[in-house]
Amino acid sequence: MTDLQENQGSTVSARLRIVGWIVLTTALALLAVTASMRSIMSGQVAESANVGIAQEIEEFRTFAAEGLDPKTARPFSSMDELMERYLARQQPMAGEAIIGQANGRVLAAGTAANQAGSWLAEDPVLLGRILDDAKPSGILESNHGTVRWAKAEAKDASGANGAGHQAHLVVAHFIGGAQEEADRQATMLFGVAAGGLALTAGIAWLAAGQIMRPIRTMSETAASITANDLSARVPVEGRDDLAQLASTLNAMLDRVEASHLAQRHFISEAREHLGSPQRKLAAALQKLNEEEVPRKQRGRIISTAQAHISLMGQTLADLELLAQSSDPDFIQRRMVPVGEVTADVAAAAARPGAYPDRQFRIAESAKAQAWLDPLRVAQAMHQLIQNAVAHTEDGESIRIGSAAAKGMASFWVANDGPALDPDQARALLENYRSAPEAGQQGSGMGLGLAVVKAVAQAHGGTAWVESGNGHGTSFGFSLPQADAGQGIRCEEEFAQSMASSLGGES
Q: Which of 25, 109, 309, 328 has the fewest beta carbons closer than 10 A?
């Protein structure tokens, strides 16, 4: 099923599909325009022929009814004379034939440049078909193309019927030449449209390439990402949809990289914090198997093994806490006194047996309340205390404190150890510590500080470190005193209570 799904879909590139659709729609539009223009021009040819024929027929009828013989100054009594007089005055248009028939004679009006009159006059079959047709007008096909025609009849002054007393005028228009000109113009228009279509295809190809370039860049960036290198990012250019897509992709890559680094850090810390106690515990157990171990030494070995087991348990608890830090219910907030949390942490650190050979004192205690999870705060402070113990000597004093200012509650642990340079201090909270080589100390954020940072971020706060200025090194974190949603809820509850009170009083 998976192979079938992979084989489905078009193998044509998106660029070609874009160009293909643009060219197809443009070609259909140009073809429709060309066909419409040819139809319009053909209609104009037929309309022009019909107008010219109707005008000639009307003029003949008027001449036959009102024309006077110049010899007698009376209406024409001879149809031959009438037809000759009328035809002598005519100048046929191109392709137009004006033919008169009287007393068996066929007369044509025309010029040497226009042979249409000769074509009809010298084609008795075609002329006979027109004269014998009962209809006054029509369309016929001839050796010279399509002919549109009309005819009119005139009688002499006596009004008698008969071949000698009647004359017929035939006006025909051979539209083949005009139609060929219309076709030539349509062909020229089609050629121009084809050139425009080729130009459109070229522009569409370039435009599609420009549109697809960011997508190709995204594809190349995605292809360059490996399990060991997630640093590649898509260049963001402009503010259009593709730029927003690139920004979204970069944000996703940031999250993936952060998650990947966190996982690597998690594994590295687990290996470092569990590996060494495990080896020492194995050595202690092996030592216990030796029969000649004195009883007193055996007790020390058992005590050491228990300490390692306790350390491994604490490490597993810290790793579990770090793994749970992304859960929505990781923290359970409530309004608590900041000074009370500080006092509880200091009391737990100073209890007998917790941290031998260290002195703890509260340097500052905030007289404020904060919306926080006291258990998670205590866990984070415990990590800071462990960090301070690891970097101080026996008998040194460790300060614990809290403060509240500008809507933030801060908790910190300080010692008088060697100062850190700014880059080193920044790396402690910004960079995950890579797995150290054997016998080397890793640089960057360790498991304890990772827990502190996770607790701070879960509260919407930040972890920080200050070093130098004659005050030693302080590690701490700052949390918002009030939850934004809680403030809104308090205002709503206050408004509801006031509304209820006012309602009850009224």
A: 328
